[in-house]
Amino acid sequence: MVAGMSAATESSAEQAGLQAPMPPEDSPELLRNIEVRFPNTPDNGSYINPLDYVFYMDVADHVSLPSQDKWMPYTEETERIIREDFLSLWDTGFLNDLWIEVIDEPWDNGVVGKRVIFNLEERARVKFFTFEGSEAVDRGDIDTAMQENGMAIRVDSFLDLGLIKRVKGLVQFMFEDEGYQFAEIEHEVTPLPGGPGSVELTFHLDEGPKVFVENISFVGNDAMSDRKLRGQMKNTKERWFLSWMTGRGTYKEAQYEEDADRLVAFYRNEGYVDAQVGQPDLDYLEEEEDGKSRGLRLRIPVEEGERYRVGTVDFDGNDVIPSEGLASIFEGLKPGEYYSEGYIRDAFETARELYGALGYYEMTLFPDLQPRTELDADVDVDSNGETEAGGNGNGEPHVAENRPTHIEGAPIVDVTIRLQEGDQYFVNRITIVGNRTTHDNVIRREFQLAERGVFNTAGLRHSVRRLNQLGFFEPLDEETAVDIAKVEGADNEVNLTINLTETNLNQLTFGAGVSQFDGFFGQIQFQTSNFLGRGETLGVGVMSGSRVRDINVTFTEPYLFDRNMSGTVGLFSRKIEWIGAYTEDSTGGTATVGFPLALYSRLFVSYSYEATNVKDINPYFTVNPDFLSFNPFFQDALLLGSGGSRTVSKVTPMLNHNTIDHPIFPRRGTKYQAGVDLAGLGGNSRFWKPVLESIWYLPHTSRTTIGLRMQYQYLSAG
């Protein structure tokens, strides 16, 4: 392809039988034309239109145009422009290779002309890409991992060797994470017909044998047994007989560091502040006969160091909370006792919550440990701090003015808790996003924070839990559900944004059928936990048939009279015709008021009234005394002793403490409930029935939860 007006003009003149224009004979070297070539492709073809490349060439504006009698000298400036064009073309990312040739092409009158040839080798384009050879790692998981790591091989995109290398490294890591330490990943590029530079990219996967840990041993551990140390490791376990099902014993090199940190933390909890755990010595066994698995022995080096007792406990950097207050939080660090970093971690969470409640949400702390090594090592004290006898080399006892370096032979470490309290922050604005139906005030009334108030992180966490307890939204993470952004141009202020995803809480069910006991019937029921987005609960149900009728309506207002007290009203009417026996007709209702006692605790007081009538009793039940004598409970069901009617009027006080994080998808929390039914006020039935109930939810895995429930009831006549 020739790109240059001068070349086109000369060609036209020759076809017309005319003499092509010549430059003046005294002209210097001229830029006669430029040319774009693709020497490594058949027929000099290219995937991209060659004129698109010319777009990046400034030198195209410096070509001589004979038809316009415009002659452009070829100078050092021209060569500079050509070099810049070279860089511009390379920066497009379209090319694998690029080189430039400059050849002489004189006119007939002897004036020297320069032809500049740009030789381009285009990058191949991927039309198809596949992963073949192994199913140990799912293709869908590979695509997801590539997306999460910002990698994408798109159809008709340029072949990128750097990207291919990163993809291979990612897939290699995925194999290793599944226990395939000897996996091999290769790639193959296959040219395709139909156009220059079109290729198919194939990743060939060979997972090799899966590596299982057969034995874990430790070197250098004297104070702790191998068994106790193995028990601290969560990811790296020895293989057992159910490993084929549970996956236990699969060696994952990337997760060993977590176990090493756990071992160090375990030692530091026991007072070994200098403990270190090194990289394991890997002894791979021979592959099994099927070639699908391979054993591994791990020898883990450990440096325990000495076990320290606590000397002094001081605080540094605290201005907001006095040292006396912090000392009560860190009371687990007692002088003379063995040092334990677990106390510090627990105390740090308490201190962080306390500081967060005061608006210091950026507070951090760390323990600065200073072993006593520079004082007289002969001074020793017992566990009560009393100095034991010692010598100074002259037969005289030590003077107690020097601090001891050991307690009962154990070295002493002084602990200084160093704090960086940061600034106190206030809430500027609370923004709610995603509540298409739920009114803002329904959400804001659950917040334990107020705009222009102190940024209380504990209150924020409780606010998220209260929102979860509504059940109106997808479950929110208490630690990450709210975006915290500092206000630009303002000191010590933050904006809070909570993103919600509403769930469908409206249920409409209807149906019809036939039953041996109910006969033909039809039913319709509507239930919503967020009526018109106001946070109210409404339930309406109707069931009607030839032998049954059941109507019920329930309504709950969580903030009665715009106050933090709830109210519930429920009404029902039920009639059942028991074939050949009797007809039971019941009507009643319940009214409940709830009062808050604490953040998660409420007192409920309910009043219920139910009137039941039994009629159309089969004469056989009343005229045959033998039947009723053998069925005393049936006699009560027929209400024969009360003239065929029963009224139950009862009051139920109930205490409820509920920290369960979500009513539909619970993950953690507890519920304790204690109440008693007291019947007899205004009715002909008298009884009392205490009810105790406890529910616990404990996270099991990232996707499963263990739930436990215990209930006790007792019924006694009044």
Fraction of residues in helix: 10-25%
Count of helix runs? 15
Distance separating the two termini: 107 Å
| pLDDT < 50 stretches | 1-17, 376-380, 385-401
Structural class: alpha+beta
Measured by DSSP, the beta-strand proportion falls in 35-45%
The best one-word shape is: extended
User: Average pLDDT value?
Assistant: 86
State the total count of DSSP E strands.
32
Radius of gyration: 42 Å
Biggest sheet architecture: 12 strands, antiparallel
Please give a structural write-up.
20% of the residues lie in helices and 38% in strands. The N terminus is likely disordered. The strands form 6 sheets. Strands 21, 22, 23, 24, 25, 26, 27, 28, 29, 30, 31 and 32 form a 12-stranded antiparallel sheet that branches. Strands 13, 14, 15, 16 and 17 form a 5-stranded mixed sheet that branches. Strands 1-2-4-3 form a 4-stranded mixed sheet. The chain starts with a strand and ends with a strand. The radius of gyration is 42 Å and the shape is extended. The protein contains 15 helices and 32 strands. It is of the alpha+beta class and 718 residues long.
List keywords for this structure.
about 725 residues; alpha+beta; twelve-stranded antiparallel sheet; five-stranded mixed sheet
Helix-strand blueprint:
Layout: E1 2-3, H1 5-15, E2 30-37, H2 50-54, H3 76-91, E3 95-104, E4 113-122, E5 125-132, H4 139-148, E6 157-158, H5 161-177, E7 184-191, E8 198-206, E9 210-219, H6 226-232, H7 243-246, H8 253-269, E10 276-277, E11 281-287, E12 293-303, E13 309-316, H9 323-329, H10 341-357, E14 364-371, E15 380-381, E16 406-407, E17 410-420, E18 426-433, H11 440-444, H12 457-470, E19 482-486, E20 493-499, E21 506-515, E22 519-531, E23 536-545, E24 548-557, E25 566-578, E26 582-596, E27 601-615, H13 619-623, H14 625-629, H15 632-637, E28 645-658, E29 669-679, E30 687-699, E31 705-713, E32 716-717
